[in-house]
Every structure is written in C-alpha cells, then in structure tokens.
Amino acid sequence: MSSTTSSSTAGGIGTVCFCGIQTRIRTSWTDNNPGRRFHGCKDWNRVGGGCGFFKWYGTEMSPRAKYVILSLLKEKREFVKPKNQEKTGDWMKYALIASWGFFFAVWVLM
C-alpha cells in the first residue's frame, strides 16, 4: 500500500523539526499505520525532502481500528475504480468518433 499522507497545522504548536520550522500533523495511510497521525517536517515533499523529522502524534490504534480502516479503504478503492474505468472508456469513445469524423471530412474535401 502507498504511504500517502494528508496534513494539518492544528495541534502542531510547540513541535519544531530539525530545520527549525513548526511541524505539520500528517496522517499515515500505510498498511501498518492507517489513519495514524504524526508530526512531520513541513518541507518533506519538496526537493531534498526537508530534514526528515518524524514523531508520532497520539497513541497507536488498536488492531480492530486498523482492520476497520483498511477494510473501508479497500471498499472505497473498489467502488471508485469502475468510475475511473468508465471515464477512460468514454474518453476513448470520443477520441475515436472525433478521429473518424476528421478522416471523413478530409476524404470528402479531396
């Protein structure tokens, strides 16, 4: 699973990273720590990756909470996936129609 994160500045007061910048509270979406929050360097996603500061915020979730979150994420991915495939299919249909229309127009003008 990917390790994407979301961030917020709330609750980060007083925690400073090795860069000397106030940290942001981010959310881990890994299999081991789904939904768990942590302090991270504000510049983690910039070139160079900031200073790499990391500190958990709060306590670890129970195994049941992890299971529920991972199950919901799995259901969400399965629900969203067909919609993305439909959009791709629609785009391909429109591109095919447009290309045939273009070729027909060129053929008629010759």
Please provide a brief summary of the model.
It is built from one helix and four strands. It has one helix at 63-109, and strands at residues 5-8, 24-28, 37-40, 54-56.
Which key terms come to mind for this protein?
single chain; alpha+beta; four-stranded antiparallel β-sheet; 43% helix
Describe this structure in words.
The protein is α+β, with helices and mostly antiparallel strands and 110 residues long. Helices cover 43% and strands 15% of the residues. It contains 1 helix and 4 strands. The chain has one helix spanning 63-109, and strands spanning 5-8, 24-28, 37-40, 54-56. A 4-stranded antiparallel sheet has the order 1-2-3-4, with no helix packed on it. The chain is elongated and about 75 Å long. It starts with a strand and ends with a helix.
